Amino acid sequence: MTASYIKNGETLVLDSQACIGCGACVDVCPHGVFILEAGKARIDRRGACMECGACARNCPVAALAVEAGVGCAGAIILGKLRGTAPSCGGEAGCGSGKGTACC
Ligand code: SF4
Ligand code: SF4
């Protein structure tokens, strides 16, 4: 039997042409997904992305897109373990302030 895994960061898209290298995504990403290189953001650790949406919300030129929420695997697993609704307890640091798998 073949195991299947959730691929973190699958929906994250960076438009390098649009990027102005402001560094906001580097600053707000709680998982260090981006680095700045030659005045542009680059996705350095796609697998670390939990699709919280913080980078896309803070990019001033809409150079980032992500289907926020689909990758909140930790919150979903935690909810299952606790028998509750999906909840990250705010630990995800996504900035939504809701502490749920909502963003
Ligand atoms: S969606 Fe969240 S975790 Fe993923 S790159 Fe953006 S800020 Fe980082
Ligand atoms: S926030 Fe947007 S414009 Fe700023 S570095 Fe990241 S992708 Fe580029």
Present the secondary structure layout:
Blueprint: E1 13-14, H1 24-28, E2 34-37, E3 40-43, H2 54-58, E4 64-65, H3 73-82
Antiparallel strand pairs: 1-4, 2-3
Bound molecules: iron/sulfur cluster (2 copies).
One iron/sulfur cluster binds near residues 9, 28, 53 and 54.
Task: Give an account of the 3D structure.
The protein has 103 residues and is an alpha+beta fold. The chain has a domain at 13-70: Alpha-Beta Plaits, CATH 3.30.70.20. It is built from three helices and four strands. The strands form two sheets. Strands 1-4 form a two-stranded antiparallel sheet. It is elongated, with a radius of gyration of 14 Å. The N and C termini lie far apart (33 Å). The model has no long low-confidence stretch (mean pLDDT 79). One iron/sulfur cluster binds next to helix 1.
Evaluate the radius of gyration.
14 Å
Overall pLDDT confidence? 79
Distinct small molecules: iron/sulfur cluster
The SS-based structural class is alpha+beta
CATH fold label of the domain at 13-70: Alpha-Beta Plaits
Record field, number of beta strands: 4
Annotation keywords:
103 residues; alpha+beta; Alpha-Beta Plaits; 12% strand; binds iron/sulfur cluster
Question: What's the gist of this structure?
Answer:
By secondary structure, the protein is of the alpha+beta class. The protein has helices at residues 24-28, 54-58, 73-82; strands at 13-14, 34-37, 40-43, 64-65. The chain has a domain at 13-70: 2-Layer Sandwich (Alpha-Beta Plaits), CATH 3.30.70.
